[in-house]
Design a protein that fits this description.
Length: 133
């Protein structure tokens, strides 16, 4: 699995390289989601689907549960281009910090079911797209 930012900034490339490397090295110990998840229906049903009470980083608990009932791993020959809009809108260090703290939280305390990280959704839409609506 390789995440590639839609940015030429060194900090973005470094951040995604660190995440990709960490997630790949730990995939057999602590499963991580990475922008796209594929699961068989039987696995999805066996773990009860997504827990809709989780408000932030809900994909990690999902793949961690799935990895306990089925084979888990990244598709290593492909890559996914990811947007850096959130970094541009919210700030890179603020966003990186939230993700790191969220990782620690779910690892030691479990799924995040309150908005303690004040993570906003859909607030970074392209203003040109919003004006067309």
């Amino acid at each position: 699995m390789k995440l590639v930012p839609d940015s030429d900034k060194f900090i973005d490339k470094l951040a995604y390289k660190v995440y990709t490397t960490t997630a790949t090295v730990t995939e057999n110990i602590l499963a991580h989601a990475a922008s796209a998840i594929m699961a068989k229906t039987s696995v999805h049903e066996a773990i009860g689907g997504f827990d809709e009470s989780i408000v932030f980083v809900e994909d990690h608990p999902y793949v961690r549960a799935a990895s306990k009932v089925a084979k888990f791993g990244f598709i290593k020959k492909e890559y996914v281009i990811v947007s850096v809009r959130r970094y541009d809108k919210d700030g890179r260090w603020r966003t990186f910090t939230k993700y790191i703290l969220a990782e620690l939280y779910i690892t030691f305390l479990g799924p995040i079911k309150s908005n303690i990280f004040q993570y906003k959704f859909a607030h970074y839409e392209d203003e040109k797209l919003v004006q067309k609506k």
